[in-house]
Amino acid sequence: MHSLFVALLLGQRPADLNVTPEQIRVGNLTRICGAAKRLALKNGGRFQVTPANVVEKLSRYLGNPTVFTAPGDTPGTVSYQLNAAMVNANLTTLKNPAKTVLFYIGKNNTLDFKFGGKAAVGCADGQGRYVTKAEAASLVWKP
Question: pLDDT per residue over 115-141, tens digit each?
Answer without folding.
Answer: 999 999 999 999 999 999 999 999 999
